[in-house]
Amino acid sequence: MNNERRCWWKEAVIYQIYPRSFQDSNGDGIGDLPGITSRLPYLKELGIDVIWLSPVYRSPNDDNGYDISDYRDIMTDFGTMADFDEMLETAHRMGIRIVMDLVVNHTSDEHAWFVESRRSKDNPYRDYYIWKDPRDGREPNNWESAFSGSAWQFDEQTGMYYLHCFSRKQPDLNWENPKVRDEVFDMMTWWCEKGIDGFRMDVISMISKDPRFPDGPDKDGIYGDMSPYVCNGPRVHEYLREMNRRVLSRYDLLTVGEAAGVTIEEAQKYANLDGSELGMVFQFEHMDTLQAQDSVVGKWTTRKPSMSSVRAVLNKWQIQLEGKAWNSLYWDNHDQPRAVSRFGNDSDSFRVISAKMLATCLHMMKGTPYIYQGEELGMTNTVFSSIDECRDIEELNAYRQYVEEHSLVSADVMLRCINTVGRDNARTPMQWDDSANAGFTTGRPWIKVNPNYRTVNAKAALEDPDSVFRYYQKLIRLRHELPVIVYGMFRPLMEDSESIYAYERLLETQRLVVACNWTDTLQPCSLFERSGGRELISNYETHQKGMLAPYEARAVLYE
Ligand code: TEU
Ligand code: CA
How remote is the CA of residue 81 from the centroid of ligand 2, in Å? Predict the structure, then answer.
């Protein structure tokens, strides 16, 4: 039952940095690499083992670096390769590893390969991308891009369409072409030789498309859904096994595949314990528990998911990957609203306590936990009072399509949706202190700062022994100290409760019991009645017998 091979990335806690919003060092309002280097002591203090760096490669920034024009160079806004090397070296000296974002489902349309590819039908780079003839004078099929509009862009030069699952400035690479795979694997090797410690692979589940390119089921009355034909496609495992053979297996890396649309059965292949593909995947099911009827259109909604729907998903993943594959654990990243606003309670009275509860709930589960910058401060969603304050291409395009072009949704409702689930919520600047712009920049920040920075900031958190930061620090320390938290088998408890998320972890004679109250009221819970347990962590100092206080979380170890 507990037969996992032990290794560092199963025992590690990862911290994700979105460089654009982390720390500006030169007053241009944009976070950068020297800014990150200057904040490494803060991360050391938190105690994390690994940084996952969102893309820092050269990019025209149509999608904030997820559109790469040169994989072997650094984005001008972020600094130089010398700045990168210094950051890597400083991090390594401090015992912190660095995992790069690998974005190889697509490149920027400004990448040299695409500039060549679009020139002519017989250009040697033509087959690096996915080109199709028009169908009846229109797009080759009805697929909608993830950022609204058709997934196909007509190119005058040769009278054909190219596929872009994301923005039209993110043409999809053609992985069927062995030359593309050679290029990608060479580039990965180049970074490994530089000494990086792993890859987070952007939408890696989308690199193999159904070669028939069929129409998708109707999505929003305008376009069809491409996901059945682009996610977990026919050759994806073959490609990853090749990547593993040719690159990954030659180094000691953390690898995590972002796997939109992944099922448990698929994840068992991607993250197989035999190590033939990846270390783990990011699944999305617990991010997408709201049903179609709860949404306004597509992903856009103003509702909050219920604890029981989230729990059902996470428990299923915990149980069904046991002994088969390794889990990743996350509430937050740069594509999601802030966890405390989405799953907890960001009001003044409950923000801190519910942020700690969510942290306990996730960090005591089995898998490798990821913390997204600011999560350790309990940073919240912000309020965008007009679309002019938004920066994210997904938000801007959806607003244009649904509000302006098709009048499917009112401006007011769309803005409320953006404030609830929009990606910009995660991208407001890191809140370092209570000085102007939260200490993020001395200039004009590229996106607005959350006005609550005067109370919610790192400086205040470091001074307060009861802060969310200190609580995360303790959770990380516990994981490093106790193998039961890393390797113990997961078993759900109180599965009928609508308010309490509880489970136990079992390793040899040890039993770790975890219970989290997801509501703002007192709830009965008799899991801790047995004597002799050692309380590892709780967000309350004292407990009421047989009860959990509002948002109370407890983890007790019985030997
Ligand atoms: O995200 C892909 C993905 O599947 C989603 O989370 C996506 O962001 C979508 O907006 C959800 O509504 C990855 C990156 O994490 C994201 O930042 C990039 O924009 C995208 O790929 C394209 O590279
Ligand atoms: Ca800067």
Answer: 15
Tokens of 386: 């007009």
Q: Could you read off the pLDDT of 167-179 as tens digits, one per residue?
A: 999 999 999 999 9
Q: What is the CATH number of domain 9-107+179-475?
A: 3.20.20.80
489-493 and 500-507: which strand pairing?
antiparallel
Q: How many A from CA of 166 to the centre of ligand 1?
A: 8
Three-state DSSP class for residue 15:
strand
pLDDT value, residue 530: 86
Q: Name which residue sits closest to atom 2 of ligand 1, judged by CA.
A: 203
Helix, strand, or coil (residue 224)? strand
Could you please state the CATH topology (level 3) that the domain comprising 112-163 is classified under: Oligo-1,6-glucosidase; domain 2 (3.90.400)
Residue 220: its pLDDT value, please?
Answer: 80
Burial status of residue 350 (CB atoms within 10 A of its CB: 0-12, 13-18, 19 or more): middle
Q: Which of 139, 202, 277, 395 is catalytic?
A: 202
What b/e string do you get for 137-153 counting C-beta neighbours within 10 Å, with b at 16 or more? eebbbbbbbbbbbbbbb
Place of tokens 């100092």: 541
Whole-model pTM: value is 0.97
For all residues of the chain together, what is the average pLDDT? Answer: 97
The ranges assigned to domains in the chain are 9-107+179-475, 112-163, 488-558
**pLDDT per residue as tens digits for the range 358-377:** 999 999 999 999 999 999 99
Query: Does residue 104's CB lie within 6 angstroms of at least one atom of ligand 1?
Result: no
State the CATH architecture for 488-558. Answer: Sandwich (2.60)
Same fold yes or no, 9-107+179-475 and 488-558: no
- What proportions of the chain, in percent to the nearest 5, are helix, strand and coil? 35, 20, 45
List 258, 285, 335, 376, catalytic entry? 258
SS3 511: strand
CB of 63 sitting under 6 A from ligand 1: yes
Residue 183 a catalytic site member? no
42-53 pLDDT tens trace: 999 999 999 999
185-243 tens-digit pLDDT:
999 999 999 999 999 999 999 999 999 999 999 988 889 999 999 999 999 999 999 99
Q: Is the pLDDT of residue 135 over 80?
A: yes
